[in-house]
Amino acid sequence: MTGQVGQATAAVLNAMGLLTSALLLLVLLISAFVLNPIAAAFILVLTASLIGLLRPLRKTGVRRARALSRAQVQYARGVAESIGVAEEAQVFGAGAAQRKKIGGLVSQMRRHAFATQVLLRLAANLYSAVLSLMLVGRCSCSMRSVAATRHRSVRCS
Q: Sign of torsion, CA 79 97 107 60?
């Protein structure tokens, strides 16, 4: 079928992205538990909540991926059909209708491919961005509390 190499490459890249994100989360959680167990528990709860909130986006991505798969199968069938009747179409003047049909299949597949890629990348990037913001927010809160503690100890002495 068409695009199998691209799909296999995308699957490997998605698996690597999942592995990278999981390792990043694990390292962040271990560091957080070492530095501040309460903050680590908070991050763990937020992460679980984020996974739950992104579930509808993932479902939409799966639906789009299935639609893309169906569109690619239809495209492959259309190409096979057009090759089989190309000579007859040219002889009988049906070439324009055949080109129009294949063009419609191509545009349908292109729309589904674009929507699927955007949704899958959006979910992964959104998850990473929120985790990074949570980490930065927690670090900033910790730095403020340390600075406030030092400021009070300087004033008291």
A: negative
Cα 119 to Cα 81: distance, rounded to the nearest angstrom: 32
Q: Are 62 and 96 in contact (CB under 8 A)?
A: no
Q: Where are the domains of the chain?
A: 4-156
CA distance 7 to 112: 14
More confident residue, 120 or 103: 103
Q: Which residues are CB-neighbours of 32 under 8 A, at least 6 positions away?
A: 39, 40, 43, 138
The per-residue pLDDT for range 52-79, each reduced to its tens digit, is 887 888 788 888 888 888 888 888 887 7
Which pLDDT belongs to residue 157? 47
Q: Which pTM value belongs to this model?
A: 0.45
C-beta of residue 72 within 8 angstroms of C-beta of residue 109: yes
Fold of 4-156: ABC transporter transmembrane region fold (1.20.1560)
